[in-house]
Specification:
401 residues; Aspartate Aminotransferase, domain 1; Aspartate Aminotransferase, domain 2; 2 domains; seven-stranded mixed beta sheet; 44% helix
Length: 401
C-alpha cells in the first residue's frame, strides 16, 4: 500500500507541475557550470541560481586554505564538538565571529553548526520552551518554521513585514518569554525585514529578536557582517544565525548572541550536542573567507553586486514596458535575490525550460515554497557575473516574452 500511496502523491505533484529533480554538476560553483540536465547530457550553462553571492566558492585563496586545512587536520572531525570534534580551527572561527559581531551584540559569543537548517532548528527549539511564546513571520524559511514545530512554546504568526499586527500580538501576550522570529533577507523575495522596527518592539515588550541572516551575511554592511551592520542596530536582545555556505563560499553556520544565550545553547541545543562537528579543514578555510569578506576585495565584490542588481532591474523594467500585457512583475529587492514573478506553475517551468534551451539556468520556484499563484524565476546574482552576463539574461527573457 505504501508504494501505491506514494505513487499517487507523485502523480498529483506532476499534474500540478510541482515535480522536482536533481541535476548533476560536473564542475565547481561558478557563473558558468557544466551541468547534466533531465536528459543526462552535460551542457555548460550560465547560472543565475547560486547563493554564492560574492563568488568565493571558487576563489583560489580559499581552495589553497582548504588544502592546507586537510594537511593539518585530515578529513572529518571524528565526533561531536563536546566529545573531541572541536578543533583549534573551530575555536578560532567562533572567536572571530564573536569579535566581528561585538559592535552590534554586547558580550557577543558565537557557536558553530554544520548547516543553517540545523542552527535554526536548534536556536528556536532550545529557546522556545514551555514558558515562551514565539511570534513567527509568515514568510520565514522552512528551517525556522520547523523549529517552531519542535519548540514547546505557544506559536503565533504575523503577516509579512506587518509591524502593527505583530505589535497587537505582543501586547496581548502574557508569556514570560517572548521570541520574535524572522528572516532578515527573505530567500524567495529578496526584501529585507524591518529589523529596526522589530527591535523597537522587542525593547518595548521585553521580547527577544531571532534573526536568520543567511542571505544577508557577507552581502550587507560595510564589513559584510550582514543586516545588523546594514541597519546599525545594537542590542543584547539580538540573536543572529548566519550561514557559511552562501556568501562565505564554504559550509556550516553559526549563531551569535549574548554570551549567556550561547552558553545555554551549548547545553541545550540538541542539534549541536548530538551532531558530529563539521570538518576542521572547512573551518580552517573559513578564516581565509572571513579575511576576504572583511577586506578590500569583499568591499569591491559587494560594490560589483550593487552594479549588477541595478543593471538587471533596469533591463527587466524596460522589457516589461515594451510588453505591457505580460503578467510578469519584478519583486522589490535591494539584494542579489531578484525574483521575477510569473504566476502559474506550468508557465514558470516552461519559461525556465526555454531559458535553459538558450544556455541559461534560472530556476522556477513554485508552491509551497512561494504562495499559490506567485510562481517565479528566482534570479540570483554573483559578484563574478559580468554586465554582459546580465545583458544576455535580459535578452533571453526578451526573446521568451
Amino acid at each position: 500500500m505504501l508504494i501505491e500511496h506514494l505513487q499517487a502523491r507523485l502523480d498529483e505533484l506532476q499534474a500540478q507541475s510541482l515535480t522536482r529533480f536533481t541535476r548533476v554538476a560536473e564542475t565547481g560553483t561558478a557563473p558558468r557550470q557544466v551541468v547534466r540536465g533531465a536528459d543526462g547530457e552535460p551542457r555548460e550553462l550560465l547560472m543565475f541560481c547560486s547563493n554564492d553571492y560574492l563568488g568565493l566558492a571558487a576563489h583560489p585563496a580559499i581552495a589553497d586554505a582548504l588544502v592546507e586545512g586537510v594537511r593539518c587536520y585530515g578529513g572529518g572531525s571524528g565526533a561531536s564538538p563536546l566529545v573531541s570534534g572541536h578543533s583549534r580551527a573551530h575555536h578560532e572561527v567562533e572567536s572571530q565571529l564573536g569579535e566581528w559581531f561585538a559592535p552590534w551584540i554586547p558580550q557577543a559569543r558565537a557557536i558553530g553548526f554544520c548547516t543553517g537548517y540545523m542552527a535554526n532548528l536548534a536556536v528556536v527549539a532550545a529557546l522556545g520552551d514551555a514558558q515562551a511564546e514565539i511570534f513567527s513571520e509568515t514568510l520565514n524559511h522552512a528551517s525556522l518554521i520547523d523549529g517552531t514545530r519542535l519548540a514547546k512554546a505557544k506559536v503565533g504568526r504575523y503577516a509579512h513585514v506587518d509591524v502593527q499586527g505583530l505589535r497587537q500580538q505582543l501586547a496581548a501576550s502574557t508569556a514570560r518569554i517572548k521570541l520574535i522570529v524572522t528572516d532578515a533577507v527573505f530567500s524567495m523575495d529578496g526584501d529585507i525585514a524591518p529589523l529596526p522596527a522589530l527591535l523597537a518592539l522587542a525593547e518595548e515588550f521585553d521580547a527577544w529578536l531571532i534573526v536568520d541572516d543567511a542571505h544577508g551575511f557577507g552581502v550587507l554592511g560595510a564589513s559584510g557582517a550582514g543586516s545588523l551592520e546594514h541597519f546599525g542596530l545594537r542590542s543584547e536582545r539580538l540573536i543572529v544565525m548566519g550561514t557559511l555556505g552562501k556568501s562565505a563560499g564554504l559550509a556550516g553556520a553559526f549563531v551569535v548572541a549574548h554570551a549567556t544565550i550561547s552558553r545555554y545553547l551549548l547545553q541545550a541545543a540538541r542539534n549541536y550536542i548530538f551532531s558530529t562537528a563539521s570538518p576542521p579543514a572547512v573551518e580552517h578555510a573559513l578564516l581565509t573567507s572571513f579575511a576576504l569578506i572583511r577586506g578590500s576585495e569583499g568591499r569591491a565584490r559587494r560594490e560589483q553586486l550593487a552594479r549588477l542588481q541595478a543593471r538587471l532591474q533596469a533591463g527587466i523594467a524596460a522589457l516589461l514596458q515594451r510588453h505591457p500585457t505580460l503578467p510578469w512583475r519584478m519583486a522589490e529587492s535591494c539584494t542579489p535575490i531578484q525574483p521575477l514573478i510569473i504566476g502559474g506553475n506550468a508557465e514558470v517551468m516552461a519559461l525556465a525550460a526555454a531559458l535553459e534551451r538558450e544556455g541559461l539556468r534560472v530556476p522556477g520556484i513554485r508552491p509551497p515554497t512561494v504562495p499559490k499563484g506567485e510562481a517565479r524565476l528566482r534570479i540570483t546574482l554573483c559578484a563574478t557575473h559580468t554586465e554582459a552576463d546580465v545583458d544576455r539574461l535580459v535578452a533571453a527573457l526578451e526573446a521568451c516574452a
